[in-house]
Amino acid sequence: MKVVAFNGSPRNEGNTYEALKLVCEQLEEKGIETEIIQVGIKNVRGCAACGTCARTKNEECIIKSDDVNLWIQKMKEADGIILGSPVHYASMAGNMKSFLDRAFYVAGANGSMFRHKVGASVVAVRRSGGLPTFNELNNYLNYSEMLVATSNYWNVIHGTMPGEVHKDEEGVQIMRVLGKNMAYLLELVENGKGKVTQPEKEKKIYTHFVR
Question: What is the distance in angstroms between the CA of the first residue and the CA of the last residue of the chain?
Answer without folding.
Answer: 48
